[in-house]
Amino acid sequence: MRQIEKLYKIACSPSRRIIGLMSGTSLDGLDVALCQVSGSGLATELTVERFTTVPYAERFRDDIRSVFAKKTIDFQHLCLLNAHIGTQHGRMVLDCLDTWKVNANEIDLIASHGQTVYHAPKKQHGLADYPNATLQIGDGDHMAHTTGIITISDFRQKHIAAGGEGAPLAVYGDYLLFSKKDENRILLNMGGIANFTYLPGSQRADEVFTTDTGPGNTLLDAFTSLYFQKPYDENGALAASGKIEPKLLAALKDHSFFDASFPKTTGPEVFNAEYVQVAQVRSGTQGTLPHDLLATLTRFSAETIAESIKRVIEFSEKYTLYASGGGAHNPILMQHICEQLPNFAVDSTEKLGVAGDAKEAVLFAVLANETVTGGGTDFGTREGVPSVSMGKISFPR
Ligand SMILES: Nc1ncnc2c1ncn2[C@@H]1O[C@H](COP(=O)(O)OP(=O)(O)OP(=O)(O)O)[C@@H](O)[C@H]1O
Ligand SMILES: CC(=O)N[C@H]1[C@@H]2OC[C@@H](O2)[C@@H](O)[C@@H]1O[C@H](C)C(=O)O
Fold this sequence. Notes:
Organism: Persicitalea jodogahamensis
GO molecular function: ATP binding; kinase activity; phosphotransferase activity, alcohol group as acceptor
Distance between the termini: 12 Å
Radius of gyration: 20 Å
Helix content: 25-40%
Binding site for ATP: 24-31
Bound molecules: adenosine-5'-triphosphate, ligand AH0
Number of helices: 15
CATH topology of the largest domain: Nucleotidyltransferase, domain 5
EC number: 2.7.1.170
CATH superfamily of the largest domain: ATPase, nucleotide binding domain
Mean pLDDT: 96
Strand content: 15-25%
Low-confidence stretches: none
Number of strands: 12
Keywords: ATP-binding, Carbohydrate metabolism, Kinase, Nucleotide-binding, Transferase
Shape: globular
CATH architecture of the largest domain: 2-Layer Sandwich
């Protein structure tokens, strides 16, 4: 059968098995979600059959770090990694299928985010002659060839072509899977970077809203690794035993990103260890003890998240916040957020049927489903949510 006919059959079938893949800014591993998806648009129904995070080997992580969020890199290495990550992610998928005892030919599609290596929205690069830009590597052709499964990848470019910043894309899946009549919902994801989607109880697509808020865990991870040689502050234990340094907190919050209008996006290109060190010098707090630094950075993430949410809500309305991403496992971060949003009901996306750790990978499966089924949800003229299909199709042969 011709490849295009196979794809057409997949598109016409009442349901599809799609593997969603996400490798985020934390570089902890590849999130792999095997989903059964039926319908499209607001009639989409999705069940997560399997989910796992394949942890990255130290060597693979260091390899990605060598080109990650840096202005100057070894260009040959970037070129090699584009193919290498595509193949490695493909092998990780095959290993998962093996463990799950699922044959690759039972899978209809892979939705592969790839690895963001640089994110440069115009508001950040400031170069008048250039557009918003972002780069995800781990090419879809390598994934398709390695796995033998039709792969949809590189979702962010169409968003940019249509006037967006290439992120957050979660909003599309959030709206299709989680919006509910008469309930105002905020879906807050805290990975390396934090973002949220606002889903109005009106369920009107043209009122849906999304933005990044700034750092989630990225700074916590950087300093936990520097001072404690651990990948992250497990359960916020280190921050819990420190004191917030107010002068440093004020200096951390003093950045144009936080004053810029919504929607906006960012990444570790801005929020990195150097950002903190500069804030320490500016506030004369270089002597801050490691535990106090983590306490302050945790509060910094929480305040910038809560303040962003407060900017878009009506105080007379009721909202439920559903948390996801690794930060939802950090009780200190969650406690600070809840404290600043006292009128919110707070829950996890688990309550909505999708585990918080799986959510982003699942949402890419939804995006791929929309690409092949035609989708066509009209988000109106809302900035940051262009009404486009996303992703490029790679056939295995
Ligand atoms: N038990 C825990 N306690 C504290 N923090 C945790 C815990 N579990 C995970 N995390 C944090 O979550 C991070 C991973 O989050 P996640 O996988 O959502 O990020 P990501 O998808 O890579 O990032 P992004 O969404 O920005 O692309 C870890 O690096 C760690 O900081
Ligand atoms: C350019 C890029 O990879 N951005 C990521 C990153 O990680 C979190 C936040 O910043 C978000 O905007 C986005 O990912 C999620 C999956 C999104 O697009 O919704």
